[in-house]
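Look over this record as teaching material.
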Amino acid sequence: MRKKGPGRPPVTTHALIEEIAFRLFDEQGFDNTTVEQIADAAGIARRTLFRYYPSKNDIPWGQFDESLRLLAQHLREMPADVSTAVAVQESVKAFNHVDPAAVEQHRRRMRLLMNTPALQAHATLRHGAWRAVIASYVAERHGMCPDDLHPRTIGRVALALALSAYEQWLEDEQTSLPSLLDETFAALHHHLDDQRAVTPERRAVGKGQ
C-alpha cells in the first residue's frame, strides 16, 4: 500500500489529478514526467490514477469523452429550422466554451496538446472521434451515411477551422476565442449553405455550360 505524506489527503477527482500533473509538466516537461511521479505527488497508487485516466497521454485531454457526449447532445438539440452550418458553428462554440476563471488553465492545456510531439499520435485518435460526432450530425441532417464524402468533409473542415482559431488565440492573448471561431467558421457557411455545389447534377450542368 502506498504510504501517504503527513496530512496529505488522497486525490479523488479528475480536476485535482490534472492540477498536479500540469504542475509537473510545467516543471519537468511532459516527456520527463512519469505516471509514477504524478501518482506519488497525488498521494495515490498508480492503479488508482489509471481508474481516472487510462494513460499519461489522456490526462491533458481531461474528460474529453464526456465533452464529446455533450457536443453530440448540443447538436441534436439545435432547432430544425437552423441551418447545418449555424448548428455546427454554435455547437462547436459551446464545446469550446471556457469560464473566465479557467482561461489560463485552458491555454496551458491547449499549448501542451498542440505543441507536444509525444501527444500528436494520441491527438489523431481524439480528433477522429470529434470529427465523427460532426459527421454523424451532418449525415443525419442530409439523409446520408457518416462515411459519405460530404459529412466526412464537413467533419474535417470543422476541425481545421477550430484548430486555426486556437492557434491564433494562443498566439495573441488579447483575442476572443468565440470571436475567432465565428470568424473562421464563416468559411463553413459558404460550403454548407450552397448544397447544389455537391450534387452530381450540378457538376454535370456546369460541365455542359
Notes: The domain at 63-199 is CATH 1.10.357.10 (Tetracycline Repressor; domain 2). The chain has two domains: 14-60, 63-199. Residues 1-8, 196-209 have pLDDT under 50 and may be disordered. The two ends are 78 Å apart (CA to CA).
